Amino acid sequence: MFVTKFNPVHVLSVTLLILLSNVTPSQAQTTVTGTLGTVVSSQAATVSNLDLSNRSLSSIPPFNNPSSLQEVDLSNNHISYLNGSAFAQLVNLEDLNLRNNLISTITVDVFSKLSKLRFLDLAENSLTDLPDNLFMHNGNLTELRLGLNNISAIGRKTFTGLSSLQKLFLNNGGLSDIDSLSFAPLVNVEEIYLQDNNIINLPRNAFHGLQNLKIIDLRGNSLLSAECNCDQLGICVGTEVQSFSVTILFTCLNETHEINMTCQAIATSENCAINNNMYILAIVLSIILLILTVLLLVLYRYRTNLQVWFITRYQCCRSGRVEDKPYDVFIYNSSEDQGLVVRELAPGLEKRGFKLCLEYRDFPVGACIASTIIESVEASRRTVLILSQSFVDCEWCALAFKASHQQMLKDKQRRIVVITLDGPKLDNVDKDLQFFLGTNECLKWGEPQFWDKLSFALSGVGRGAMHRNMPSDIDLKHL
Predict the structure, then answer these.
(1) Concatenated DSSP letters for 435-468?
(2) What is the pLDDT, as a whole number, of residue 437?
(3) Which of 93, 153, 217, 474 could join 249 via S-S bond, C-beta 3.0 to 4.6 A?
(4) Which SS3 state, helix, strand or coil, does residue 217 take?
């Protein structure tokens, strides 16, 4: 195996010289071109180890005959950026050292061609985060060093693909956020070093399922649960089916100073199952709460329709109090809308068991209209107003509303039901009526479920109300 060292020379601005065994000095100098030479000698194919450390490199150099390289050392340089083309041709690379550079940006495909990589050192750089699935194609990697960076969070896809990893170093950085599934892909990991970070809360299940785990180093963190008692550490490790010993190193605070503790955690199905049950219970309760919230919102949104449905189908929710009045409903409308009342509205209500007071039928001939309107309102349990533009323009219609509104305020009961026909302009409406329309729901003639909604609005005044026990010949002229 040949280990190639690069040394600076001062020939034609050349800064690197590649020396190969069995190559004469004159041959070696002819292999250097530009500011960074490439190997063109036939002997280059035998080179497997390449040392480019401490060369002040700001970018990855081109590699000649890269398929022969198995180890590349680029540590202690000034490299700041890694993209997919940097190592694309190093298909047999097993050892890559990028320690102590200025690397702050890594593209997700930078290591995608390095399927044989076993060792990767990215420590002492300027990394703040790692792309998801960065190591997806590095299934043979056994040691990964990411310490001394500024990585604050590890997501659940950060280590996807690292099924052979045995040692993970994430020490001496700004790590504070760890997902409960961050380490789940590391099924063969033996040692995890997380010391000297900013970890305050560690998911209890963070190491669950890692059956080969032997060392967890959490020293130098501020775990809230880390009392100076191994039994109170609260970390679940291992699997459901196997018991084994795990060394957990952590820092706790007693009454005077910090203490580094070592615990031998015995992973059992019992201590992990408890947490799993709590996790499942939390999920179930969250789902139930979500369903109840949605159900309440739906009930509130369609509360009127539901009330209508129950009353019209099951005759429930009616008021138990029935007033002793001769009429169930007093209907008042303009003369232009009388045809609608005669042909459809009045027959429909009477068919449903309501006793009606109608102007064209029940008002005494020659009586004072104003007095008769007031008497009709007082003699009826509800007043139905047919609201149209002609109603708004009608003086007697305005009186009918005022009388029924006054009676409603007096009795402190909802007595007025408004049925709109053509939606009159509000600027033409009496102020009291306008306020009433703005604060109460109105029925629209011909809308879906109109008769059910009208029956609901009139609930408690028909079908067995006390008017059935009153003399049938009573009318307004006797009041």
Answers:
(1) HHHHHS--EETT-TTHHHHHHHHTTTSSSS-GGG
(2) 76
(3) 217
(4) strand
Q: Which residues pair with 153 in a beta bridge?
A: 177
Say if residue 446 is exposed, middle or buried (CB neighbours under 10 Å; 0-12, 13-18, 19+): exposed
Question: Domain 142-276: which CATH class?
Answer: alpha beta
Token pair belonging to 43? 């002997």
Question: What is the pLDDT at residue 263?
Answer: 76
Q: Which option is the CATH number for 1-126: 3.20.20.110, 3.40.47.10, 3.30.2310.40, 3.80.10.10?
A: 3.80.10.10
Backbone torsions φ then ψ of 269, nearest 5 degrees = -65, -25
What is the average pLDDT value for the chain, to the nearest integer?
Answer: 77
**What is the reported pLDDT for 256?**
58
- Rounded to an integer, what distance in angstroms lies between the CA atom of residue 396 and that of residue 307? 34
Closest by alpha carbon to 93, among 76, 115, 74, 65? 115
Q: Which of 370, 423, 426 is nearest to 398 (CA)?
A: 370
* Tokens linked to 181: 């599934």
Backbone Cα Rg of the chain: 43
Enumerate the domain spans of the chain: 1-126, 142-276, 323-478
Establish whether domains 1-126 and 142-276 are of one fold: yes
Q: How confident is the model at residue 279 (pLDDT cuts 50, 70, 90)?
A: low
Burial grade of 299 (CB within 10 A; 0-12, 13-18, 19 or more): exposed
Distance CA 90, CA 120 (A): 14
Cα–Cα dist 355/468, whole Å: 9
pTM metric for this prediction? 0.52
The CA–CA distances, whole Å, from 167 to 153, 179, 189, 365 equal 19, 19, 6, 104
pLDDT at position 99 is 98
Residue 203: which pLDDT band, with cuts at 50, 70 and 90?
confident
Return the CATH fold of 323-478: Rossmann fold (3.40.50)
What is the spatial distance between Cα 117 and Cα 107, in angstroms, rounded to a whole number? 17
